[in-house]
Structure formats: C-alpha cells, structure tokens
Design brief:
By secondary structure, the protein is an alpha/beta fold. It contains 8 helices and 9 strands. The strands form 2 sheets. A 7-stranded mixed beta sheet has the order 3-2-1-4-5-9-8, sandwiched between helices. It has a two-stranded antiparallel ribbon with strand order 6-7.
Length: about 270
C-alpha cells in the first residue's frame, strides 16, 4: 500500500534513523531482568513466560522491544516501514546473539504474515500515523492466534495534537475537532534529538486523529476483548506550567490497551 501516507512515513523515519533520534536507538544494555522490567508484562497482565511464544513487533523497529522479547526467549518478528529501523533490530539481535525476523512493510498490510500465527502483537506508538485505524485492526485480527493478545499504545484521542506549546497562561488549549482522520502536525520535542541536532530538516510527524469509539468498537467488532486500559501520564510535582513535564501530568498524552482475541465472545 505505497500511497502518500506510506511514502511520507517511510521518508520521515529513514531521516529519523539518520539523525539518531531517540526512538531509533537500539537497547544494548539489557539482561533478562531489565528486559522484563522494560516491557512491563506483569503490570499489563500479560503472560510472563515467553519461551517459544511468537511475538510480532508491529511498526516497532529500532532494536528496542524486539531485543527485549528475544532475550526472554520469544520467537520475534518485526514489521516496520523503515529499512534503517530494521537494520537496528538486526544489529541488536547480533549484539545479544539472538535471532529475529525482520520484514519491511506497512502496518495496514500484513499479507506477508501467516494467519493466526502470533501469540502476542506488540504495537507501540504509531497507530496515528495512518488515517483509518480499522484497516490495521482487521489485519491484526487475521494474524493473531485465538486467545492471543494485542498490546496497543496510542495517542489519547481526547488530546490529539495537543502539546506543552498549547499553554495559554491558564491551561492547554484544545484546537482540533474530536473526530476521526483529521490531520494533525506539530514539531518534534527537543528530547527526540537529545544527542545531536539533525543534520537536515526533518518533516514534522503527520498524524491523524482517532476517536476512542472507533478504536474500541472496531476492535470489539473484530473479536477482541479488552483486558486492560491504562492512561500514561507524567508525575513531576512542581513542574513549570507550559513545560513538557507539566503538560504530561495535566493531560495524559497516551493510552495503553491490552486486548485478547476471543472471536465469538463479543462483536466478531
């Protein structure tokens, strides 16, 4: 599905890899204890015994989650739009002496993967990079095994497009309508490039709003049952209003979901 959305995301992420942005740096100091703590499986209510379990890191390249799962004994596949990100997954795997499978592709098209082939689909922040989340959920439902789990982290739908720069002296001003597929863009935060400034101009993230009703109703319609919902927020007492730290405590920017695929129970 190499449309304008695909091309924009691919070009941006290749540029982020070149700039060594935060999300592109492999984790090379893990052991099994650190890997387990990083993933937070117990907190999420997910099975802790990963030996031999098949895990798909969906749009999650960069050598972070894939390395952690592989160290815990999982059979790991990574699908990502960026060849540079996937190269970092392979580098991390080589560093630890583990094996992973990498596939370059779009999260909206998982035809390269077998049906009902994964025990866990792990989907970090990326859902808002495509306009229609329902396409992604349909693909996930096809590749996850019955009884398997789908971890999804995404933007809090109520605060899409909002950042600390929206401070007006009294609060953070919402400007975007609460609807599906409205395009949003904002500058990358300074901490994305905390090691060095990018050597060239990198396009801002192009994101699309997703309402909570579409996310929840689409996934239940595909046969998923919600087992956990967590609001991810900061905790920085005394943070300066208008700063990123203060903003994340006032308006939780992200949500985490854990879904179990149980078709026939609800919806699908």
């Amino acid at each position: 599905m190499q449309d304008d959305v695909y091309r924009y995301n691919k070009d941006r992420w290749e540029a982020l890899v070149e700039a060594d942005a935060l999300f592109t740096r492999p984790m090379l100091d893990l052991d099994t204890e650190k890997a387990r703590a990083y993933l937070g499986l117990e907190r999420l209510g997910l099975p802790g015994d990963l030996a031999g379990r098949k895990v798909l890191c969906l749009a999650g390249g960069g050598g972070q989650q894939s390395a952690a799962f592989a160290l815990l004994g999982a059979d790991v596949t990574v699908l990502d739009i960026s060849s540079g990100q996937l190269e970092r997954d392979r580098s991390a795997a080589e560093h630890y002496g583990v094996g992973i499978r990498t596939i370059q592709g779009d999260m909206r098209d998982l035809s390269a993967l077998d049906e009902s082939s994964f025990d866990l689909v792990w989907h970090p922040y990326s859902l808002t990079f495509v306009p229609d989340s329902r396409i992604v959920f349909r693909e996930v439902a096809r590749v996850v095994a019955r009884g398997g789990h789908y971890y999804l982290m995404c933007a809090n739908p109520f605060f899409a497009g909002l950042t600390h720069d929206s401070w007006n002296g009294e609060g953070y001003t919402l400007k975007l309508p609460y609807t599906d597929e409205a395009e949003a863009s904002y500058p990358d935060q300074d901490w994305v490039y905390d090691r060095k400034a990018p050597g060239r101009v990198i396009s801002e993230p192009r994101e699309y709003t997703q309402t909570l009703s579409r996310i929840v109703n689409s996934l239940t319609g595909e046969g998923f049952v919600l087992t956990l919902l967590s609001e991810v927020r900061g905790d920085y007492p005394g943070a300066e209003p208008g700063s990123w730290s203060h903003f994340t405590g006032v308006a939780p920017p992200w949500l985490e979901f854990v879904w179990q695929y149980r078709p026939g129970i609800v919806g699908g």
